[in-house]
Amino acid sequence: MKVFWLQLILLVNMSFVGSAGYADEAVDTDHPVLSEEIPETLANPRATMQTFMTSMSAYTEGDKTQIETAITTLDVSYLATVIQQQKGKELALSLLSVIERSKAVVLNDIPVGPDGDRYVFGRYSQGTVSIIKQADGRWLFSQQSLRALPKILEGLVDKPAKNGSKNPQVALPFYIQLRSMLPDILKGGFILEYWQWLGIFIVIIVGSIADKVVAWFLARNVNKWKQGHDAYKEIENTILRPLGLMAMALIWWFLLGMLGLPDTALAILSVAVKLLVSLSAIWSAFRLVDIVNVLLMRKALATNNRFDDLLVPMVSKSLKVFVVVMGVIFSADNLNIDVTSLLAGLGLGGLAFALAAKDLLGNFFGSLTVLLDRPFQIGDWVVIGDVEGSVETVGFRSTRIRTFYNSLITLPNAILTNTKIDNMGARRYRRMTTKLGLTYDTEPEKIDAFCEGVRALIQLHPYMRKDYYQVYFNEYNSASLDILVYVFWETPDWNMELRERHRFLLDILRLAKQLDVEFAYPTQTLYLKQHQESPFSPREYSPTMSESDAFAQGQKEARSIVGSTTGFDVKPGPVHFPQ
Fold it and tell me: For residues 48 and 114, what is the distance between their CA atoms, to the nearest angstrom?
């Protein structure tokens, strides 16, 4: 609660600065303003009075849009821009009540071309109601008349209407009716009257109570909804808390206008309350977008397609950007800032903005490329340049990749449009190539049995590719007989690949134990040869087998081995050796 009051004080302080700016916007009537054409509805006192009475008659009969026409007959240029609409409506109703209670309006008695620049409709002890010719040629109810309306109306409040409405209270502003019923002791005060200070206090209390009640009601209903939906337990009960602040701000906005506050005080409080309404509305919309994001993400995660996992966050971010833009326009409209000229200025400066923000636009189009071409999805293992890791989030400006060191790398999306992207997560098959080293004392028959057993394991494992694999005795290594194992897995992600690799390697180890096949490890054998004198001298040594006989013996043994292993009848024949 203390934080909220601090925020309100800050907003009020900001409004003092803002009100000074609005005061500067008042039209200085001492300097003539040239106009190309004077509206016929304001061309003379009779036309101005007729326009006012006709529009107010339509307003009291239910056409609420006619109040705008009535306000055009009033010189409200002395009011701050932020309260001209609100205060103008109040002044129009007050003026109508004064006219109804003073005398009937006879349009033919009002001159079309009076002598001088002033027409006096009525004189009262509290002031005068008159229509004055402005510097631009329009005839409007004067500022002095509008300032005196509350006191004039207070003197006429008990008199019945003579023209127009038959109910003397129908057009009376609420604060006039309320003030007429209060004792005189509450009509004194400093800056504001005592009853107005009391009214502001009551308005603050009512708004605060509304805030607490709405917040409690929404939290209770969110909690009740979560009890029937276990999938949304992470949603906080207070996620709709800003709606309570918005209800409080709206109540303040509505009730403060009913207290008849002076122009300066009303301008200050209006700026503060309108800013609070705008901020609470934007905050509430952000929370609603968060709820929509959670609901859509739950549905996206329930599908097999991972494209929606990428699309949903971008949709939620787009909605938040839209909320901010609409919030700015709403706030500017509430503060009577000319949004049309602002948008026109942005249009004229669009080219300069595009040149200055080319990196921003490049990142934006990069995000569109990711969205449309779909080079990767959330969770994919990718290699982009020298960056390798899994895709965590994709935004409008950048893509975040979680590396295998658990660090987070942010890549501008503009890079993705002209950089090679290696999507490891999009592989249909995940390859494993390795060599199993057997000891040199392994019998050839056991090597054949072991290789055939590994091939059978590949056929039995459910996630392994059955149409392409290689398992063969491949190489004589320095300390082992190497068996090449070249296989593929059809798994959707790295976690399942690791699990299936684990199962396959353990099955190979069990197979080796059952076949009594030992795996080799790097070893070295050192042979020590002692020098002994040969009993034969070189001249006495003679080989027992000639070179040609040795070649023939080797070929014979080779044919017998190949014939026994392949089942083919290998016929003897000449074998040519390179010279």
Answer: 13
Q: In the prediction, which pLDDT does 559 show?
A: 67
- Give which of 357, 293, 280, 346 is closest to 319, Cα–Cα: 293
Q: Spell out the residues 6+ positions from residue 274 whose beta carbon is closer than 8 angstroms to its own.
A: 82, 253, 331, 334, 335
Whole-number Å distance between alpha carbons of 243 and 280: 7
What confidence score (pLDDT) does residue 562 get? 59
Number of Cβ within 10 Å of residue 108's Cβ equals 7
Taken in order 102, 105, 109, 110, the sign of the CA dihedral is positive
Q: Which residues contact 330 (CB under 8 A, 6 or more apart)?
A: 278, 281
Query: Could you please report the per-residue DSSP string of 218-269?
Result: HHHHHHHHHHT-GGGTTS-TTTTHHHHHHHHHHHHHHHHTTS---HHHHHHH
Q: Are 219 and 238 in contact (CB under 8 A)?
A: yes
A 10 A CB-CB count for 429 gives 14
Q: Kindly calculate the radius of gyration of the chain based on its CA atoms and give it in whole angstroms.
A: 46
Longest dimension (CA), the chain: 160
CB atoms within 10 A of CB 187: 13
Low-confidence ranges of the chain (pLDDT < 50): 1-35, 165-170, 536, 539-542, 568, 577-579
- Whether residue 288 contacts residue 104, with contact meaning beta carbons closer than 8 Å, is answered with no
* H or E element in which residue 472 lies: strand 470-476
Model pLDDT, residue 59:
85
pLDDT at 435: 93
What gap in Å lies between CA 336 and CA 271, rounded to an integer? Answer: 10
Ramachandran region of residue 409, left (φ > 0), alpha (ψ -120 to 50) or beta?
A: beta
Tokens of 29: 């009537």
How far is the first Cα of the chain from the last one, in angstroms, to the nearest whole number? 100
For residue 560, count CB atoms less than 10 angstroms from its CB and return exposed for 0-12, middle for 13-18, buried for 19 or more. exposed
Task: Tokens for 124, please give them.
Answer: 């009262």
- Which tokens hold the place of 82? 């932020």
pLDDT for residue 471: 94
Total H helices, total E strands in the chain: 16, 13
In whole angstroms, what is the distance from residue 214 CA to residue 217 CA? 5
Residue whose C-alpha is closest to residue 91's, from 124, 125, 126, 52 = 52
Of 85, 70, 90, 69, nearest to 22 by C-alpha is 85
Structure tokens at 393: 């989030």
Residues 6+ apart with CB under 8 A from 527: none
pLDDT for position 14? 41
At 432, which helix (H) or strand (E)? strand 430-438
Q: Parallel, antiparallel, or unpaired for β 481-489 and 430-438? A: antiparallel
Alpha helices in 257-337 (DSSP H): 263-301, 307-334
Q: How many CB atoms lie within 10 A of CB 357?
A: 12
The Cα-based distances of 269 to 12, 272, 436, 541, 551 in angstroms read: 7, 5, 82, 123, 112
Res 89: pLDDT? 85
Rounded Cα distance between 208 and 206, Å, is 6
Q: What is the pTM of this model?
A: 0.51
